[in-house]
Amino acid sequence: MFTPTLRMLVKWISGPDWTTMDGAARSAALGQFRLALVQVAAVLGAGIALLFTAFNYRLTRRGQVTDRFTKALERLGSDQLYVRIGGVLALEQIVQDAPDQATHASQVLVSFIRERAPRAERLSASSAREQRIRTLRATRRRQATVPRDSALLIEPAADVQAALTALTRPSFRANVDAGVRPLRTVNLSGLHLERVNLRGADLKNVDLAEANLSRANLKGADLTDARLWRTDLTRAWLEGVNFTRAWMREAHLCRADLSEAVLADVKLGKADLTEARLSMAVLTNADFMDSHIPEETGQGGLAVLAAANLTGVDLRSAAITVDQILSAKPDRATRLAPDMAAHPQVGAYLDALPPASA
Questions:
Q1: Phi-psi region of 63 (alpha: psi -120 to 50; beta: other; left: phi over 0)
Q2: Does domain 123-153+188-358 have CATH number 2.160.20?
Q3: Could you give the CA distance from residue 239 to residue 233 in angstroms, rounded to a whole number?
Q4: From CA 99, how far away is CA 144, in angstroms rounded?
Q5: Coil, helix or strand for 99?
Q6: CA–CA separation, 79 vs 71, rounded Å?
Q7: pLDDT, the chain, mean
Q8: Residue burial 148-182, b: 16+ Cβ < 10 Å; e: rest
Q9: Where along the chain do its domains lie?
Q10: CA-wise closest residue to 275 among 257, 251, 261, 250
Q11: Rounded CA separation 127/144 (Å)
Q12: Tens digits of per-residue pLDDT, 128-146?
């Protein structure tokens, strides 16, 4: 019944006991060994079957995701607004169900936004400032109407707003591959996104250079390491925004509300802070070199720095008044222009500060 090979294997396993066994014992040992082989084969077969089933399941699921992704892309290309919004929502749902698709979905959304959003008008520094002055004067005169063709009335289309909301949702961006530069550094530069609502958005590393974000709602958003060169943030809601290490040179922050914002290590050189609110903002080591902080108190142009943390802030070239300095929280590390540092009130304030800890 048993092959010589099987008998030899059982004999080798049994060792010296094989010679002491009678015929019945040897037959029983061979039977038990054969049963063990059958059981091992059954277990291996079941394992292989499970692996095969899992492999087929993954293929089926991947096919379903691919099919859903394709349908979402078709919706994004529709001529109807509500269909495009449905495509954005479909992509967001795909990422929730299959987080490994976040990278591809982000690539699609970035391309969609750049195609659908209008380009921001590029203005020279002088013309941009003249435009903001006209806007401020009109506001002070309480003009209720604005020309219908004015850019001030332009808001992001509903599909663009939906795509921006999905793309910058923290749970969405957390699944994007960190090594994919176009996604971790979302390129929204030069787009007209006035009045966009990105409250609480994850905008770390985002590129918004020369974009128009005037009157945008970015309350509580995270713009760590963002690129905001020449970005128009006129009258934007920026309360509690984290701008740590952001590049904001020549940014337009006229009448922007930066209350309780974190601007640590921010580069604000040549930025326009006309009537900006910086109450309770953290400005540790911020660079205001050559920034515009108006002194014309009679025209209501002062930036509000009440209780702002000015630790290590460079204000040597900023146009700023004694009252603004004293309303904030400068310390011995705050870099002031020589005439400002020599002012009796400022000197008295700094002298009254406790000595820096070693």
A1: alpha
A2: yes
A3: 12
A4: 47
A5: helix
A6: 15
A7: 82
A8: eeeeeeeebeebbbbbbbbbbbeebbebbeeeeee
A9: 4-115, 123-153+188-358
A10: 257
A11: 23
A12: 555 555 555 554 444 444 4
| Number of Cβ atoms within 10 Å of the Cβ of 129 | 16
> Which residues are CB-contacts of 308 (< 8 A; sequence separation ≥ 6)?
278, 279, 280, 281, 282, 283, 328, 329
Q: Which residues pair with 329 in a beta bridge?
A: 309
- What is the per-residue pLDDT across 294-347, written as a single tens digit (0 to 9) for each? 654 333 456 777 788 888 888 887 778 888 888 888 888 888 889 998 999 999
The amino acid at residue 73 is L
Residue 214: CA count within 13 A, CB half-sphere? 19
The one-letter code for the residue type at 78 is S
CA distances from 318 to 58, 225, 235, 340 (A): 60, 23, 21, 11
Structural contact between residues 256 and 132, judged by C-beta atoms closer than 8 angstroms = no
Cα 136 from Cα 35, distance rounded (Å)? 92
Under a CB-based contact definition with an 8 Å cutoff, are residues 116 and 156 in contact? Answer: no
Q: The whole model's pTM is what?
A: 0.72
Report helix, strand or coil for 118.
Answer: coil
In the chain, what's the furthest Cα-to-Cα distance?
117
For 149-201, give the DSSP string: T-GGG----HHHHHHHHHHT-HHHHTTS-TT-HHHHTTB-TTBB-TT-B-TT-
Could you tell me the two tokens for 259? 């209350």
User: How many angstroms separate the CA atoms of 186 and 347, rounded?
Assistant: 45
pLDDT recorded at residue 346? 92
Which residues are 292's β-sheet partners?
A: 272
Helices (H), the chain: 4-14, 17-20, 23-76, 81-97, 102-116, 125-140, 158-167, 170-173, 181-184, 322-327, 338-341, 344-351
Residue range 87-95: mean pLDDT, rounded:
94
**336 vs 218, more confident:** 218
* pLDDT score for 189: 95
- Residue identified by tokens 């009045």 is 195
Helix 81-97 vs helix 23-76: angle between axes, to the nearest 10 degrees?
160
